[in-house]
Amino acid sequence: MLSDWGYNNNGIRKMIMRTIFELLLLVRSPHLEDLTLDHLRQVIARRLPRTGTYCIVALSRVLSSIGTIPEAMEIKRTFVDRTTLPSLTSNVPAEWARLCRIWLDRSSAVKHERNTRYYFLLNVGRWMAATHPRSPLRLAGREILLPKL
Asked: Could you tell me if 85 and 75 are in contact, meaning their C-beta atoms sit under 8 angstroms apart?
């Protein structure tokens, strides 16, 4: 059933089998019918984030399709906006980082491209601070404006 849904990779199949074994050992029963959503959640809670949760979700789809559990689980991913991490602007002059942030907030580029360009601009600021330490926003006495990317 899983291979019909696209879980054809040998490594994924092994992880799903390990998950099944883990669940059956948890409930101390050899029958899939004895598994519940609470059991699946228990296994997820015991694992580190992003380590095999997709296997439990895939297994929940199988259990739901055979009528063991009422509905399949959904993958829940926490969204982390990496552009707001303070470490991202380390070694970037504050004014340059501020201008880059303004550009990021106002840019109309698609998110992936906008983030890529934002990281590039921060790297430019790091380079300018390292090679022109007096003022990364002034070069040859002229203001440097952020380019239109």
From this structure: no
